[in-house]
Amino acid sequence: MNITFKYHYNLALLFTLFTFSSIISQNELPSNTSANSIEKKIDSILPLLSLEEKVAMCHAQSKFSTKGVERLGIPEIWMSDGPHGVRAEISWDSWDYAGWTNDSITAFPALTCLAASFNPNLASQFGKSIGEEALYREKDVLLGPGVNIYRTPLNGRNFEYLGEDPYLASTMVVPYIKGVQKNNVAACVKHFALNNQEHWRSTINVEASDRALHEIYLPAFKAAVQDADVWAIMGAYNKFRGQYTTHHELLTKTILKGDWGYDGVVISDWSSTHDTMEAAINGLDLEMGTGTDGLGTTTSNHYDYYYLASAFLKALKNGDIKESVVDDKVRRILRLMFRTTLKQNRGFGRINTKAHHDVARSVAQEGIVLLKNENNFFPIEDKEGLTIAVIGENATRSMTAGGGSSELKPQFEISPLEGMKQRYKKAKIIHAMGYHTGPSVYDDIIPSKLNQDSLRVQAIETAKKADIVLYVGGLNKSHLQDCEGDDRQSYELPYNQEEFIGQLKAVNPNLGMLLVTGNAVETPWLSKIDGLIQTWYLGSMAGHAIADVVSGDVNPSGKLPFSFAKKLKDNGAHFYGETSYPGDGTNQHYKEDILVGYRWFDTKKIEPQYAFGYGLSYSEFSISNIKTNTNKFNTNDTIKVSCTIKNNGNYDGAEVVQVYVGKKKSKVKRALKELKGFNKVSIQSGNTKTINIDIPVSTLAYYSEDKSDWDIEKGDYIIYVGNASNNITKTLPIIIK
Ligand code: BGC
Questions:
Q1: Considering 75, 435, 642, 674, which has the largest number of Cβ atoms within 10 A of its Cβ?
Q2: How far does residue 366's CA lie from ligand 1's centre (Å)?
Q3: Which residue CA neighbors atom 6 of ligand 1 most closely?
Q4: How many helices (DSSP H) and strands (DSSP E) are in the chain?
Q5: pTM of the model
Q6: Which of 484, 486, 487 maximizes ligand 1 atoms within 8 Å of its Cβ, making it the mutation to test the pocket?
Q7: Main-chain phi, psi angles of 645, to 5 degrees
Q8: 269 classed as catalytic
Q9: What domains does the chain contain, in order, with CATH numbers?
């Protein structure tokens, strides 16, 4: 990398150029004043810039940076992926890793796990910690979090997102973003919008209704903008209603920058820009990653060929585009700089600290979901004479490697096997791989040297010798698994795992499983195993967190952030066939409309294998005394739900009380019920706690296509309170007047 490009000028130097009589530290001012003074500074900078300099600020100068204006001390902007860790340095002008030795980081759990924790406080700690690591690595923009709604379990990128429910995703993303931005590092929420599959992602045109758009696919972005004040947002690859989403008249110009009043920077996804005029007019501010036409190898500076480069400059010069258009972009880019790289006393960040590892472990512990526990298979006690066979490639495979742009280079990654070995001191842990699927980036195993049949035989023999078999299976981060760039091709477990599970069961009936995925999978093998734990991709502390839960040191409290269908066709997105998913190669229609995830299962009365919001504990909780403050509300009231939770088991633990609301006899199509509030409560064994969950009536509005606005329907509603979308303890009728 060319380090001479990386200058950080002293602000004082910059400001002596301006007409300000006094420079006051941003940090000392109340935020409004501070925002005003930033705008004034920007007002004074804009006239000093030439058109060429302004245009140069609107597109990349390397894979992950943009140009500053050296003569004025305007810095570059440096960005990095991604949602669950700061990615290793990439080369200046190619996708190769730069090969630095000081860029290894803490890998936090992938975002499905964070969503499964149902704990916004953890999201805040996650954001703060990853922001500190980004700052240490001198990044101004962290390219995450991702909030695209989980529409189909085949989407190769679901693991990077926050599940299928817009309320859950919104509730978790806001503290994450605030946490990151506390470090004077911008979060960049992505991918705006309707990027719900990887297959054909660069060309597919999504057709969805206004209701699906506003009620399902946009709320988490809106919360990021309006509740978290996110400073950057990334466009998506796909089209919506015939236009590329990165420079979309309705999405970017009208909704994001108009209706929502977004004042941050719109950054393209890498190569998602397709047109100079649309990009200029519809509100793209910063173009990244465009491949143009392969000029990278044949010209001195192929970045000049970006849509927001020479062609943009030409259109500005000949008057096809007004200068105010580029001024608005530069204003936003400068605003981003004042919030990040130009912020006084910005701090230095920190990396790989114990505190970060602790946060990573806590998120992992709280996100792990216990799905099945027959005969109390879990927890497995550590005792003399016990032999536990930990079987499966996923017991040792790096899961921070692969997966696409969210791939990480952690300082260390504790595998499930390593975690079990460190935790179990009395019991004997034995291991066999069972199958091998090719190397992950950091593996030093050469697959051609491994014979699949021998691996299988060895695993069966190992299972025979054990008292308990813990099979660690699932997906991995290879292409066509949980990986960016394309979707899974089948809902089943790959690599003949179903057959393998049968073979293990045949030699050892004491069989449990850790399911390492970021997606639901088909589970025809479920009856063969007694215990099943969904472990997600847990990052650096994976093995420790897994051993914490398996051993019972930690009582599982995660809940599924998406529905686990029995069959692929049971999902709303797949019910209508190829027109709905994956489309015909050109178009796709979101025919299930607003009935995404559990909204579909509930409303269509289809039983999922595991429902949204479901997750077991080693304790038993009961919810009682469920009531609302009154049963008649005005539209500007808040519904106050209260209840008492008791931990009846022998383990301290946590339960997630979930409140859903449904409208009886609506004039428009409705889901049976929708999540509107939740509260995760920790309760010691034998203890009781009373909690409140507030639901503003305004959040019960639906998006009226007639009015093109939100509307609260008056009349009868039902409040559902329980600990899973399919386990409702009590329903309460209310009336909105
Ligand atoms: C991904 C983005 C990522 C970018 C930069 C793209 O392919 O879609 O999520 O931030 O690359 O790596």
A1: 674
A2: 28
A3: 270
A4: 18, 26
A5: 0.95
A6: 484
A7: -115, 135
A8: yes
A9: 3-339 (3.20.20.300), 368-562 (3.40.50.1700), 619-736 (2.60.40.10)
Q: Is the per-residue pLDDT at 30 higher than 60?
A: no
269 CA to middle of ligand 1, Å?
Answer: 6
The full 3-state SS of 702-729, as one line of letters, equals EEECCCCEEECCCEEEEEEEEEECCEEE
What is the distance between the alpha carbons of residues 120 and 132, in angstroms, rounded to a whole number? Answer: 18
Q: Is the pLDDT of residue 525 over 70?
A: yes
Paired tokens of 377: 């298979």
What is the Cβ-side half-sphere exposure of residue 569, based on CA atoms within 13 angstroms?
Answer: 2
Residue 69 DSSP class: B
Enumerate the β-bridge partners of residue 234: 267
CA of 302 to the centre of ligand 1 (A): 19
pLDDT per position as a tens digit, 36-95: 999 999 999 999 999 999 999 999 999 999 999 999 999 999 999 989 999 999 999 888
CB distance 600 to ligand 1 below 6 Å: no
| pLDDT of 3 over the 70 cut | no
Ligand 1 contacts CB of residue 81 (under 6 A): yes
Cβ neighbours for 154, distance < 8 A, ≥ 6 positions apart: 197, 199, 487, 488, 489, 491, 519, 568, 581, 582
638/558 Cα distance (integer angstroms): 28
Reading the block at residue 73, the tokens are 């001390």
Pocket test of ligand 1: the residue of 63, 66, 78, 81 to mutate, having most ligand atoms within 8 Å of its CB, is: 81
Mutate to test the pocket of ligand 1, among 269, 271, 288 (most ligand atoms within 8 A of CB): 269
CA 315–ligand 1 middle distance (angstroms): 28
Ligand 1 pocket check for 171: Cβ under 6 Å: no
Q: Does the pLDDT of residue 645 top 60, yes or no? A: yes
Give the ligand 1 atom nearest the CA of 485: 7
How does pLDDT run across 173-186, given as a tens digit for each residue?
999 999 999 999 99
Determine the residue of 80, 202, 270, 479 to mutate for testing ligand 1's pocket, defined as the one with the most ligand atoms within 8 A of the Cβ atom. 270
Q: Cα(270) to centroid of ligand 1, in Å? A: 6
Kindly report the protein residue whose alpha carbon is nearest to atom 8 of ligand 1.
269
| Ligand 1 pocket check for 269: Cβ under 6 Å | yes
For tokens 């690599």, name the residue.
495
Distance CA 705, CA 211 (A): 7
**Mean pLDDT, all residues of the chain:** 94
pLDDT of residue 446: 53
Residue 297: pLDDT band (50, 70, 90) is low
Cα(670)–Cα(686) distance, integer angstroms: 40
Q: Which H or E element spans position 549?
A: helix 542-551
Residues 312, 276 contacting (CB under 8 angstroms): yes
Kindly report each contact of residues 128-131 with a partner whose C-beta sits within 8 Å and lies 24 or more positions away, as own/partner. Answer: 128/179, 128/180, 128/182, 128/183, 129/179, 129/355, 129/356, 129/359, 129/360, 130/84, 130/85, 130/86, 130/106, 130/179, 130/180, 131/179, 131/180, 131/181, 131/182, 131/183, 131/185, 131/187, 131/349
Distances (CA, A) of 685 to 73, 548, 620, 724: 60, 18, 9, 21
CA of 484 to the centre of ligand 1 (A): 9
Distance of CA 706 to the CA centre of its chain: 33
Beta carbon of 405 within 6 Å of any ligand 1 atom: yes
CB of 270 within 6 A of ligand 1: the answer is yes
CA-CA distance, 486 to 309, in Å (whole number)? Answer: 30
Give the Cβ contact number of residue 346 at 10 Å. Answer: 18
131, containing H or E segment:
helix 120-136
pLDDT for the residue numbered 448: 56
Contact 295, 302 (CB under 8 A): yes
